[in-house]
Write a structure and sequence with these properties.
65% helix, Serine Threonine Protein Phosphatase 5, Tetratricopeptide repeat, 280 residues, transferase, TPR repeat, 14 helices, transferase activity, two-stranded antiparallel ribbon, mainly alpha
Length: 280
């Protein structure tokens, strides 16, 4: 389970360049080791039918922490954060060393806006299991959001050293390299994230921005176009594409792409300002 929403941070690399810094890929699943009946239940959906099935399992096994962890994950997927929180609390009460439940609860705390509680839960998970890559990635995201860049980098680096297959570790480390102007390293990390999650749009946006910073406009344009192909509902992708059109002097196409970005996010200033520049 990953949080429903991700954090997006926009920075500018000069008056004409949009740099979209996307912090979260919703690509990781709640990791636990369901046993017995639980393993046959699809926890990827937070539907009422699935919740009902999981509740039946808990009724038959009220002392099974795995059951509460799995139902909490389903609640989280369905946006029922308070119910999820209660289930993770119960799972931890039943098994105090249940590090996966701590990490899952941290996601819910983050979604509820309690960053300190989320940070404490990630750290507790890592205290129990210092090789748990998911917790390093989750805590790294919290550190990066708080501006604690070096600590965030260290956590992403540790997850990568543990041979994680979670693309968020590479994507988020790439964002830090990008922020520091180390675009060659950023491109390597975004490319690795793409290899692990080829259907995710965000790494293409990230890599395209680093290509653009290195004056490789053709590869940047290809990446922005691919980001749109994979997910046409991200305003930044359209604004990034529009920027290339604008740099190439095609104001009509630029205006259309900026307009699409503005429709998707009317408060996204690079889109509205770009549209104002090119519409006339």
């Amino acid at each position: 389970m990953e949080a429903v929403t991700g954090d997006r941070r926009n920075i500018w690399r000069g008056p004409a360049m949009i740099a979209t810094m996307l912090s979260g890929l919703a690509l990781a699943a709640c990791q636990s080791g369901p046993a017995g009946e639980i393993s046959s239940i699809d926890t990827a959906q937070g539907s009422s039918g699935n919740i009902s099935s999981l509740s039946s399992v808990i009724a038959r096994n009220p002392q099974d922490p795995e059951a509460y962890n799995v139902r909490g994950s389903a609640y989280g997927r369905g946006g029922k954060y308070r119910e999820a929180l209660k289930d993770f609390d119960t799972a931890i009460q039943l098994r105090p060393d249940f590090y996966q439940a701590y990490a899952n609860r941290a996601l819910i705390q983050r979604s509820l806006g309690d960053q300190n509680a989320a940070l404490a839960d990630y750290s507790k998970a890592l205290q129990i299991n210092s090789n748990y890559d998911t917790a390093y990635i989750g805590r790294g995201n919290l550190y990066r959001k708080a501006g604690r860049v070096q600590e965030a980098f260290n956590d992403f680096q540790r997850a990568i050293q543990l041979d994680t297959t979670d693309p968020r570790a590479y994507h988020n480390r790439g964002l830090i390299y990008q922020l520091q102007g180390q675009h060659a390293y950023a491109i390597e990390d975004f490319s690795k994230a793409i290899s692990l999650a080829p259907d995710a749009a965000e790494p293409y946006n990230g890599r395209g921005l680093s290509y653009l910073a290195m004056k490789d406009e053709d590869n940047a344009f290809a990446d922005f176009n691919m980001a749109i192909k994979l997910d046409g509902n991200i305003a930044e992708s359209w604004a990034n594409q529009a920027l290339i059109y604008e740099r190439r002097g095609d104001k009509a196409k630029a205006a259309r792409s900026y307009a699409q970005a503005a429709r998707l996010d009317p408060n996204y200033k690079p889109a509205t300002e770009g549209l104002a520049r090119t519409r006339g």
